[in-house]
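As a point of orientation, let us examine one representative protein, giving the amino acid sequence and backbone structure tokens.
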Amino acid sequence: MHTPSGTSLPAVPAVLAPVLPSRYERERTPAAGAGVRIASDALPGLESVAAMDEGSVWLHDALLGPHSADIVRYLGLARSTGGPVLDLGSGAGRLAVPFARHGFAVEAVDRDASALERLDAWAHRIGPQVAGLVVTHRADLTELRLHGSYRLALLAGAMVSALPPARRPGLLREVADHLETGGALALDYTAHLWPGLVAEPRRTWAFQVPRFDGIDEWVVARQDFDLASMSERVTYYTARTGKLSAQRTVLTTDKWIVDQDRLAAELHAAGLHIEGRRRQRIDDRTESVLLVCRPDD
């Protein structure tokens, strides 16, 4: 449920009050982009594609909430394609480690060395059998050069929105060239519906991060879309309060708005066809899309 502006706010920490929009008023519905939405279940399109430090792991996981069920779908796909699996933009192993636990060989690629270190540590904590199935590769996806062949490649957690549109076709061709016969590329992204973008190019969300370590964390996220450049910036203002300390941080992530027709054309040009498409409406302006693509015969 997303509670629109004008309803009663829960106890958002006073430390975040300076970043709430000044035009927010309880007695009337604010103009587009001037209100605050309280997100209690799903966070539409707020996932971060920037590197996260250890202190932001809880926030990073919460931002991926709309994609939390994708591991089940991707594992089901892997059971039909087999491995090895290529996890592009793997982060700290949200998908790679569970895939290895299910017996799949995984190559995890990410530009963030600290995330890959956390991935390795997680796999080793589970045991040598899992750790032995995971290989990490530090690289920027826009400059990726692959040397193996794969049955399944993943661009999960809206990672495709991290790729500059001009560089995306090169990555798609590189992946397609390294897919084995019968293999697949699966990717997901947050689709921002055009009428919603035009009507409300600036959005503000307030939400509490689910944590189980004794820290109380609240976030105000400001979402700014630049329709001329088809880009987006999300700024997260966080307040973390523990028994003995309080901390405020500001984090940002920059993404690209995915033009769905253009992406389909780029997949076709790379020698891939869309075999399956799954859409899930998040709210009246946003939906999550998952594509399964196969190499052309």
Observations:
- The radius of gyration is 20 Å.
- Residues 1-9, 23-34 have pLDDT under 50 and may be disordered.
- The longest strand covers residues 179-192.
